[in-house]
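Suppose a colleague, Dr. K., hands you the sequence of a protein chain of 253 amino acids and asks what its three-dimensional shape might be. Before reaching for any lab equipment, you can write down a predicted structure in token form. Begin with the sequence itself:
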Amino acid sequence: MCIRDRFHIVVEKMIVQNMFGGSKPNSAVLPKLPADGKKYVPYEHVWLEEGPETPRIDERFILTSSVREHLKNISRAVFAKRPVLLEGPTSAGKSSMVQYLAELTGHTFVRINNHDSTEIQEYLGHYVSDESGKLRFVDGCLTSAVRNGHWVVLDELNLAPTEVLEALNRLLDDNCELFLPDTNETIHPHPSLRIFATQNPSGAYGGRKVLSLSLIHISEPTRLLSISYAVFCLKKKKNRVNNHNNYYTYIRM
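The predicted structure, expressed as tokens, is then:
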């Protein structure tokens, strides 16, 4: 058992002692369907809001016990409307799990690949000339997702250039808005927007950089030898005194 495993056990005991009076809570069960008029899809003990598309189950996706546990943790973050970062080795299934949940709930899945030469225009958009020769602005992948409430996976986030990360920072902090400098437009996200990011460990793969603390509020991503990858919340919160919403959620997988 590594030190991080022991740390998880200690924290779990502290949660039981301080939040549940020393008695371990019963296993989570699916609560009643929310009576707000919206459509929901159940996953384990969480109701996830249904998207505009027809929900479907990808029968090709193999749900092992570990994958089910990972999906349960991700679904909790989705329910809490938290941006999520998944870190792990290549072909570990990070993006595939998000796509599975997106299709299960009827949301449009968008994957944006990052590399050393990724340009901010690919995210935000750019001007093109139409048939009459006039310039018009075409939304980029991220802009379109923010407007329409898609589920977005930012693949290989720690390969993205600094200007891309700076644009994301404003979307992930308390402002929760996307600014388009070319059109001077500020976009407030669609309520259904969910942001995920994936990356390989910065020390084990060439060219990967450590994300800025302004983007991810965890100094060093936790890596457990016994699992394939971990999940973190990317959401940045301003410091508030005696405000429990200031805590950052860590989902151990």
